[in-house]
Amino acid sequence: MAGYPPPGSGYPYGGGGYGSSPAPSAPPYGEKPPKEGKTSSSSSAPCYGAPPASQQYGAQPPSSAPYGAPPPAYGGAGGYGSPFASLVPSAFPPGTDPNVVACFQAADRDGSGMIDDKELQSALSGYNQSFSLRTVHLLMYLFTNTNVRKIGPKEFTSVFYSLQNWRAIFDRFDRDRSGKIDSSELRDALLSLGYSVSPTVLDLLVSKFDKTGGKSRAIEYDNFIECCLTVKGLTEKFKEKDTAYSGSATFTYEAFMLTVLPFLIA
Predict the structure, then answer these.
(1) CA dist list (Å): 242 to 47, 201, 236, 238, 246
(2) 151 three-class SS
(3) Cβ distance 143 to 105 under 8 Å?
(4) Where is the composition biased (Low complexity) (predicted)?
């Protein structure tokens, strides 16, 4: 898993891109849904954010267990396994840049083949980048799908190359070279990554990731990474449940908590 999906594969709100009005039949992710099963292409299809009455958030199927009851087992492809599951040992992908290998080995002081959050933070800071532990934790979670806060060579390589891509995107949209991107620049950056968010969500993102608490209405590079990781992670988790690409999904209480909490406790 390296980087964001290409532009055009985003998850627009309202069934269309930011400021655009596509045909009602356009799938919400900007790409064709899987062929399995039936999907509707008529104009009566529900808009993104307006699921059918039978799928309204909070509507509990008759067979569902109440809150607090023992949850069903999650796991498998697209499932919700334990966020503290052990990380499988990995190796560097063939053709990995020797500098990336050397960087990982320097951080892996005990030679265990794994580095922890502080070691990753130190390794990344050697490339003129400074990240908070929260950002490092989000990186580790998104690239391992666990909260064990350790990564191996394969995951480190993905993180390293993805950060290079995201740095280039940040620099591209930091048009005034201020070291920050404002609301409109963030909107354009997210669109280039395939994510279209409403003006309301955009304002919330800027307020959340602005180090001045929303006063400057702009975010710096490390917070830009944290912002993009949050949008990317939550969108991908939602898409796992929205198998019909309809723009709506039904979550059990347990699945919802396991989806959102890792981003809150990072």
Answers:
(1) 14, 20, 10, 6, 7
(2) strand
(3) no
(4) 58-67
In tens, the pLDDT along 35-73 reads 444 443 333 333 333 333 333 333 333 444 443 434 334
User: Domain range for residue 235?
Assistant: 98-265
Q: Which of 35, 28, 33 is nearest to 14 (CA)?
A: 28
pLDDT of 33 higher than 60: no
With CA atoms as reference, report the closest residue to 180 among 236, 219, 237, 133. 219
pLDDT of residue 217: 86
* Tally of domains within the chain: 1
1: its two tokens? 């898993």
CB atoms inside a 10 Å sphere around CB 173: 18
Q: Hey, how many other C-beta atoms are within 10 angstroms of the C-beta on 227? A: 22
Torsion of CA 108, 114, 118, 120, to 10 degrees: 80
Q: What are phi and psi of 222, to 5 degrees?
A: -65, -40
Looking at residue 209, which CATH number applies to its domain? Answer: 1.10.238.10
